[in-house]
Amino acid sequence: MPFISGDVVVRQIDNSMWELREELVYQGRTDTFVLPIGFRTDFASVPRQLVWLLPRYGAYTKAAILHDHLWALVDDGFDPSDADGIFRRAMRELDVPFTRRWMMWAAVRAASFVRSRGASLQSVHPVELAQFLAIAIPSMFFVAIPFVAVTLWIWFFWWVEAAVYLWLRVVRFVTRSDKPVNRPRLLWRA
User: Fold this and answer.
1) d(Cα 131, Cα 143) in Å, to the nearest integer?
2) Distance CA 182, CA 158 (A)
3) CB count, 10 Å around CB of 97?
4) Is residue 80 part of a domain?
5) Is 50 inside any structural domain?
């Protein structure tokens, strides 16, 4: 395995961020990447609507943390395409199944294009663009209907929570209770 260090040991910072408590080391073809103690990650950045298909952690957890680290280096000149390619390679080395690995790679490539506002599209090699399209287009058809359905249910559930919240506020006022009532939050992140 190219991950030289052992297990992922983290401490929860808040509802979506975690901090490494032990160093994580990945040996690439030519470079060694050391993710230091204290590095913060959200594991795999998966929209809430898609966690049924791609949970935020799994066999690819180390690769996702490595990808977060590599993306932190992009502002210092690290190539986003290389970061995404290393992510895909690390997932392969972690025995992540082919389809899941390539869908996740296409998702991070799309995020790269969005982050650079399309500027990185001009520098994309035609083979990489063909690979991206060959994976991204079928993947979008595969997840589009469930994505919309889950989004609608998240909104519906928020409205139910809001109605219950208002009812509890009225009950609290009428009974003069000091018991706090938590506000509903529209959660898009898992």
Assistant:
1) 18
2) 13
3) 12
4) yes
5) yes
Q: Which residues does 18 contact at the CB level (< 8 Å), separation at least 6?
A: 10, 11, 12, 40, 41, 42, 43
Q: Which two tokens stand for residue 144?
A: 């589009």
CA 185 – CA 63 distance, rounded (Å): 30
Burial class of residue 159 (count of CB atoms within 10 Å of its CB; 0-12, 13-18, 19+): exposed
Q: Measure the CA angle with vertex 159, ends 155 and 162; round to 5°.
A: 135
Kindly report, residue by residue over 139-168, the tens digit of the pLDDT.
Answer: 888 888 999 999 999 999 999 999 999 999
β-strands 24-27, 10-12: how paired? Answer: unpaired
The total number of structural domains in the chain stands at 1
User: pTM to 2 decimals?
Assistant: 0.80
**E strands within 8-113?**
10-12, 18-20, 24-27, 32-35, 40-41
Separation CA 174–CA 9 (nearest Å): 48
30-84: per-residue pLDDT in tens?
A: 889 999 999 999 999 888 888 888 899 999 999 999 999 999 998 888 888 899 9
- Using an 8 Å Cβ cutoff, are 161 and 153 in contact? no
The answer to whether position 189 is within a domain reads no
- What range defines the domain where residue 102 resides? 10-141
